[in-house]
Each structure stands twice: as structure tokens, then as C-alpha cells.
Amino acid sequence: MKINFTLNGQPVTVDTPANVTLLTLLRDNLGMTGTKDGCEVGECGACSVILDGKVVNSCMMMAPQANGRKITTIEGILDRDGGPNDLQRAFVEHGAVQCGYCTPGMIMASEALLARTLTPTEEEARNAIAGNLCRCTGYQQIIEAIEDTAALRRKASITLKNSREVIQ
Amino acid sequence: MNRHTRHQFVGNPINNVDGFSKVMGKARYVGDMNLPGMLFTQVLRSPIPHGRIIKLDTAPALKILGVLAVVTSDDFVDHSLFGWPVKDSYALAYQKVRYVGDPIAAVAAETMQAARAGMQAIVLELEELPGVFDLRKALDVDAPFISANPEKGIPNLAETYIVHNGNPEEIIKACPVILDESYFFHHQEHAYLETEGVLAIPNDDGGVTVYSNDQSPFINRNNLCMMLGLPIQKVRVIQPPTGGSFGGKDDINYQNSAQVARLALITKRPVRITLTREESLIASYKREAMEIKINLGAEKDGTLRAAMAQITADSGAYPSETPLAAWRGTMHVAGAYRYDAVTVDTKVVYTNNSYSGAFRGFGNTEAAAAIEQAVDEIAERLNIDPVEFRLKNALRQGDRTMTGNIIKEEVGLTECIQWVRDQSDWKSKRAVYAQQKTEKEIRRGIGIGCYFHGSGLGGEGDDVATCTVKIENDYSVTISSGLTDYGQGSRTIHTLIAAESLGVQPERIQMLRPDTQTSIDSGPTVASRSTMISGNAMRVAGQNVSRMLTAVAAEVMHCKPEQVTRVGESFLGPDEEPLSFNQIVDHANKMGMPLSANGTWGMPKIEWHFDKGSGVPYFCYSYGAVVAEVEVDRRIGTTEVLGIWMAHDGGTIIFPQGARGQMLGGIAQGLGYALMEEMKYNQGYPQAINFDNLLIPTALDVPHMEGKFVETNFKEGPYGAKNLAEPMMIGITPAIANAIAQATGRRGRVVPITFEGTLLGHDLTPPAPIKDIRMVLGFKV
Questions:
Q1: Which residues pair with B319 in a beta bridge?
Q2: Any idea of the CA torsion for B232, B235, B241, B247, to the nearest 10 degrees?
Q3: Are B457 and B327 a contacting pair, CB within 8 Å?
Q4: Same domain, yes or no: A72 and A89
Q5: Record: contact B668-A137, CB cut-off 8 A
Q6: Nearest CB neighbour to A92, from listed B15, B25, B700
Q7: Is the dihedral of CA B678, B683, B689, B693 positive or negative?
Q8: Which residues contact A106 (CB under 8 A, 6 or more apart)?
Q9: Which CATH topology does B33-129+193-244+249-284 take?
Q10: Where are the alpha helices (DSSP H) in B154-238?
């Protein structure tokens, strides 16, 4: 069946079987393998994508449910120059990446949190990634990366606000 | 002391060299590789724990649309027999199935759906045999036989090991305080986030190229040559980015690799297998279950005198690495303490509980958890503080270990214990928690666990690696090692060591991925040997090329090589006019001098006498201590870990970010093992088959952790480094167990420590339905 949705800011139309998950559509039909397959029962979070601003497990959604929605995958998270953004750099700098298999999902869960608030408490940050399993890091470095990025973005948004005020 | 030496790159902050490709989602794992015409694989697996294969007819599968080939053990040399140290495993079951999930046949098809339909069309008849499900009953006279050819000639006995260091029995008898307890450990699942995967591509010459997310591509290559009957030149194994392993991706991937390699050779098409999480949990090997009996004797002043231990390790259906893990457990089971005499008696037995193999800590995870609980128990009987008791008995440089060998290297254990004691505020917390009223339902406790961990393979075999360094015409540097990086950061460590020994910026260096055609066989990637053994080989290779560069510089500057010094990347001669690295490389090219070299390094030889149970098991050891603080709610049976403090003596730290990652990640794995990861078997059937019932720690289960590296100097190591990745999880479980014992006043002596085990003494969870497992394996129920 034909569905239309916005994928990483671009409108797309795809012909998808009705009985496949969004994860399968992304990985097998669209060749976007940055989103990982970890358990297919919605427990590990490796397949996390952002759907209309909320983080979801793409293995728990059927592809046709994407119709008319806005979806962001790891391929849509990047800086203006095409390189890593501030959160992705913070992940690397804090050692929040080891084997890297949970990392795309962790980035999506973290971006969804930071879109909601730039002042997350440690508890909020831990809750935000509680649906994403990581077997390598022990999570502490990921929390640090989120907190650092939040601080950076707070500063940037204050700067942005100030410069707007100057312009006005 | 190395800690006072400044290095240019070693020990300085640097990011993981693979970090950016991973955070961008660009790293391509096996499951991300798709080739035109690629076939998919579905494996027929045993639905029962033990049985004879009466009928196996694959012809109906070939009639399914899209199915191109099916293989069984008949398609391999010697029916796909492989295995080390005990050769008693099969890539596909031969004559018998020995565990639930045992692979029987593999189907290659155009789609996953066709492969699954093909697998379901295979006619399989099994005669169910009685099984062995309790390691304590494996050697009973009436136990059913599992292996056709047990190594020792005794049914269900895979291997035995001993330590014979004096006569502890007499000493213990005479001791005023003794302890005689038994500790049990259930299986543990590695739970790497990426499941096992292999892609096999047929070559024009009748050979095959294999991308496998294993740990040891050369062992995989050698097994493939043996099972496929191909010469070394025709089998190439390449290691792609690997999503975690922790010891767990070797034998299972040797099985997967053999299956898809044969299917690729038959179909002349690329063939890929990626296990589903359920398949991975059911079919892959685990940390072995273990029973450890410990007998200790101490003086009234708290001096430990002697220890006796008996270990029974459950290798399951196939030996895999369980014998060697049990050997490592045997070498450590009396802990990092001084004794007058120690004996250990270890048996590795077959059962029908899955199969077991390597997992981080490799036998010492259980050994340390047992002895550290035992030491706490005897300290309690003596009414001595557990920290003080350990400080009194802890190994120091020049002491003899439990195996009787003298420790020649520096020992950071005491410093580790003191740091975790002070940092955790041990003294006041221990005293306050001891005063809690007995009727209080929410109770706190604080506990300590220590460990020592032999460096490298030790008595398991020769411990040698070879690395290569090559300077390219564009002034970049290509390096390679035969050991793999499955997430632990060894590619960054090798880059740093090459930069240091070559005197060039790490940015110039590109590390190749292990490839059996371009890198040099350096043994298995196990035992935390990458930094120490391969890192040292990289240092030697870098120094060899550095000498070449100096020779070229001397020629350009018309001086002797010893007159050449380095300033950053540049070369300085007697006239003090610097020549850049690029100029030297250009000149070498003009001279026609290739700037490349190998470097080989091996651990100094030691000898363990397996028959006598004496000798030197390891050349050196790393050490550490952990304090855990817990809160137990006795009403609902939950344990929350409030804090972990850990100190590790791993010699010089080469890649600080990576070392910290190993520590914090190791703590999380230890916490999961201690409290929640119940990988149990009921009559051979796994009781957890996905992450909905196998719980591993989430971000909410792990407390804030504080760690320290006590950097002693191991003068043989690369820039003074020792091992650190494996030992990181060893001290966590006993520290938590000892904290729970203080909080509750009870000790279950079973890991994981659950509400049922510790407080009730029986399981509340009913057995998992067998039909669920069979359904997941594709059987009609």
C-alpha cells in the first residue's frame, strides 16, 4: 500500500506491504540501516525513532501507521555541515559510545528529551533513556553527554534570544 | 614509576577512533550489509534438550518456492566436528541433539519467509532421551551419557583441574575458626545488543569470504578450513564493526559461519544469517553455572591460614571454553590473600542446559564472588571488620599467591582497598547500618569485594601477538592487529601506542579491521590480552619503523642515527635544522626504502603443571576492590544499589576514556549478574527468551559510580599497562552480596540474589511454558 510521510524533513511516498513494521520498512525497504534491530519486542530501544516529537520503538509500529506522520531517524540527526551535531559530539567526548549498537537509539531518545526540556534533572535524563538498553557503558557517560548538551543548548538559546532582542 | 613519566599520547585524553561513525549511524554491522542476490538463512533447532536424531529429511524443504539449499552435518568434513580445548562440538548436530536450540539444519532462501517455510518443511524425527539438568548430578552413576567421546573417558566429565599447594586439611583442622560453605551461580547471558551475524560471499576460486561479528577471526578461519575442507588461501574472514561480545561471540559464530559458508559455496550466492533475539538467547552459549565449595581456616587474630575449594562447572551440551574458564576459576578461587596451604579440585561436567563458554571474568567472576563471600563470613565469625580483615591478609609484592607462585610485580591491592574504604565513607556507614533495628523493613547495608586477575592467557598457552605498521606515500600510517575491537576500544589503544612509538599524531593513523588475509594471526581476542600483548607488539612495530625513519633522517642530515632527536613529529640533527616527518618519508621513497615493519611480542614464559597442580599460572596480575551500598525493602523484596566505589590496579592507563568505559560498564554487568539476570533452565528449557523476561540493568538500575585507577608499573607491559577489561565486573557481585548480608542479616549464597532465593528460599515464578520456546523455534504446537 502507498503511504506518505515526512522522513527527516523530506516528504516521502513509499509502497509498503501492510504487514511489516516501521523498522523493517526503514531498514529493508528504504535501506536506512542506522536504525538498529535489537529485540523486535519493544524492550531494547535500539530501533528508536522520533515520531511527531516523541520517541517510539519502530519495531512496535506497523509501517502503514507512519502515514501522515513526521519521522526522524538517526540519519536525520546531524549538524549543518553534515557532521555530528553537539549531542553526537558530546556522546563521543564523554565515552558514551563503545560497541555503538545502542547508540543511534540512545541519540534519538536523548534528542526527544532535549526537544522537551533543556533543563533535565539527572532523574529525567535517566528516565528518558530507560527504554534503551546499553550493555557496554553503564549509562553514566550517556547521562553526562545529555547534561552537557542541555547546558550548551541553554546557552545557545539564551544567546539567540538576546540577539533577537538586540535586533528588535 | 610510569605514573611520573609524561607521554605524548599514551594516557592523554582522546576520543574513540570509531566514535563518530557510530553516533552518526554510519557504522555498518553485519545485519546492515545487503548484497544483490543475497540469500537469508533459517536454522532448524532442537525443540528438546536431549535426543537421538531418528530421521532428518531435507528434501521437502527444497520444494518450497525460494529455497535454494539446505545443509546438515553430512555436508561437512567429519560431520562439522570442531572445538577447543576439547574437540566435541558440531556446527550442525550429528546423530544427537544435546540442548534446546541445538542447530540441526540450515536453509538458504530468497527471503526470510521462504527460509522459515523451508525450515518448517524439513522432516525431523527425534527420540527423546533422559537428560542431565543439574550439574551436581552429572557424574552420578545412573546419569544419562551426553557426549559420545568424553575427553577423560568418564561419562559427562569434560575436564578436571587441581591446585596442590601444601596440606590445608591439617592446618584447617587445627584452626580456631573455620568456615565450610557452598555457593551457587546460575547461568548468565551476555546480552550484547547486536545479535550474532555472519555474511558469506562465494569467491571465484571456489573459496569463500566471511564477514563475521566474532571475536577471533583466525580461529573462525581455521575452523572453516577444517570443516569445509579448504586450504587457508581459500577462506578469508573479515571482522566488521561488532556490537558487543563480552566473550560471547566465538563458538556460536563458528557454527553460524560454517553453516552460511557451506550454503554460499553450494548456491554460489552471498548468504547471510542474523539471529533473532529469541534465537540468540536460546541457541548461544552462556556463562557457565557453577557450584563452589569453600573451606577456610583462620587464626583468632584474623590471619587466614589455609583454604580448600571444590568447583563443579556446568559446560552444558558442548565444552566450548568452559574448561578454560573453570581453569581460571581454579587459579583464583582462594582469592587475593596469603595462605600457608591451598588445594582446589575442579570438575567440568556435561549437562543438557544450553552450552556454556567464555564470558567476561572467565570463571573468576564466580570464583571471586564465592571466596569474597566466604571471607566476609569468616570475618564476621571473628568479629573483625571486613575491610580490616582483607587489609590484614591481602597480597603484597613478594608474597606467594594461593597457587604458591611468588608475586614479583608491584601490587596495588592495598591502595585499592583503602581508596574504596575512604571514598565510600565505609567506617561510619558500616557502623550506622549495624545499629538498624531488626524489625525495620527498609534496611541498608554496605559491603566490600576484592579480586586479583591473572594477566593474559597464562598457563592456557603461548601468549604472542604480531602487529604491522606501514607509512604510506601520502604520509598517513596504516596499522593492523590480528585481535579485534568489538566495542572495548582496542582500536583506539593501538592507535595511541602506534602514535607514541612512532612519534606521529594519532590523526595520521588508520587502523585496518582484522582480516585473515592482511593481518597476522595473533591468537584469540580474549583474556583482556589486546592492550598488553597486541599493544606491546604494536609498540615494537612502531619502534622498528621509527628506527627506519631515524636512519633516513641521519642520511639526509649526514650524521649518525644516534645524533638524531625528535621534536614532535620533526627530526633534529646536529646542525639543529629540523626536517619534517613528510620530508623524511619523501626521502625514504626516493631511496626506495619501504617504511613498514612487523612487531612481535610475547608474555614472558611461565609454566603451570596441570598434572601436579603447581607452578606459575600467570606472569602477573591486576587487582581491585569494590564497595557497594544497598537498600533492601523486605516487604516487596527489592534491592536498590545506592552507590558503587571501585578502584582497579591495571598498571598504566593508555586510553583513559576507554578504561573508564570498561570500569563503569563492568560495574553494570556485575550489578545485573548479582541482582537480576536470571538465565535459568528448567529441565533444559531456557526460562528467558527475550528482554521482556531476561532483565538486564537499565539506566534506572545503575547508581552513580565512582572509580579510580591505581597505576602501578608493570615494566613488561606497553608503557606499564596490565589487563583491565575483564576484571572490571568481578568484584561487583560479592560487594553487593556482602552489602545485602549486612542489610538483611541473611545470605542466600545463590547468584543472582533474588527475593525468592534470599528471603523465601523457593521460586515464585512458575516454569516458562515449553510451547512458547517451541513456537519461537518455528515448531507447530
A1: none
A2: -60
A3: no
A4: no
A5: yes
A6: B15
A7: negative
A8: A45, A48, A91, A96, A129, A132, A134, A142
A9: Aldehyde Oxidoreductase; domain 3 (3.90.1170)
A10: 168-174, 217-228
Rg for chain B (alpha carbons), in Å? 27
Q: Looking at beta carbons, which residues of chain B come within 8 Å of A130? A: 698-700
**Is B2-26+464-602 in CATH node 3.30.365.10?**
yes
Element (H, E) at B4: none
CATH architecture, domain B289-458+609-760: 2-Layer Sandwich (3.30)
A34–B contact, CB cutoff 8 A: yes
CA distance A147 to A58: 26
Grid cell digits, residue B282:
536460546
Condensed to tens digits (0 to 9), the pLDDT of residues B350-371 reads 999 999 999 999 999 999 999 9
In this prediction, does ipTM exceed 0.95? yes
- B23/A92 CB distance under 8 A: yes
- Min Cα separation A92/chain B (Å): 5
- Give residue B360's Cα distance to chain centre: 3
pTM of the model: 0.97
Number of helices (H) and strands (E) in chain B: give both, helices first: 19, 32
pLDDT tens-digit map of B441-461: 999 999 999 999 999 999 999
Q: Is residue B761 pLDDT above 80, yes or no?
A: no
Q: A29 burial class (0-12, 13-18, 19+ CB within 10 angstroms)?
A: middle
- CA–CA separation, B290 and B229 (whole Å): 37
- Kind and range of the H or E run holding A148: helix A140-167
Cα–Cα distances in angstroms (integers) from residue B271 to residues B55, B99, B107, B260, in the given order? 26, 26, 10, 6
Q: How far is CA B680 from CA B41, B65, B287, in A?
A: 28, 39, 11
Residue B232 in contact with residue B188, Cβ under 8 Å? no
